[in-house]
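Give me the fold.
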Amino acid sequence: MRATIVLAGLALVMSLSCKEILGTQCTQSSMCRLTIESNTGWSGALGGTNNTQSYDGSGDGWIEYWGSVCYTLQKQTDAGYLRATFQETSRGHAETTAAFGVISGCN
């Protein structure tokens, strides 16, 4: 429960602090994708300055979005890896193999 609260707090901070560094690759009229690669369970949040949404998953996946966003994802296990990549930009890529590791980034 504590990890979920910390993760939600990090997501809110990321979405507010990323406002200054967001790229312009994705717009409100152009759908974009955050690709997630993992061999374990993960959860997190993705959002912009006006909206943040929570996600849970296991293994590889993706989240589609519009506009400028930031994400925070956390591994749900002590083993394995978690990697996230924005397809439309070279910004915001992150990965971890740490136990219950957290990654974050902004497009």
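The radius of gyration is 13 Å.
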